[in-house]
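Page 47, continued from p. 46.
Same chain as before, 124 aa.
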Amino acid sequence: MRNRWPKAVAAIGVLSLISACAVVPMSGSPSPSTPTIAPKPPLPLVGATANTVRESLGKPSLIRQEPPAEVWQYAGRACILDVTLYADPAGALIARWIESRDLDGMPSDLTACLKAMGARNSSS
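Result:
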């Protein structure tokens, strides 16, 4: 009869190593907190109708058709603003995205660009 002692010892060793990998919370220790991510504030004009966008910003400098979207571009002295509109189920155009960039094409401060476009609209 063969000696099964080495196999039993090896099996116990493997099981000990596997059980050492288990995470067991210690009693009395605080549980790690899950980091929270602050929600981004909603983008201005997103969800607005085409009429509201036009009332706020005036006539776009350029309207680009990018089916299924329509992009209204507003060009100012310091920035360019793109408002992307999509048709809702009833066919009304709704602003779904807005972004701004400087005249070199780099992202710019959206709030400042919107203020500049609003000032441009009120002076025309």
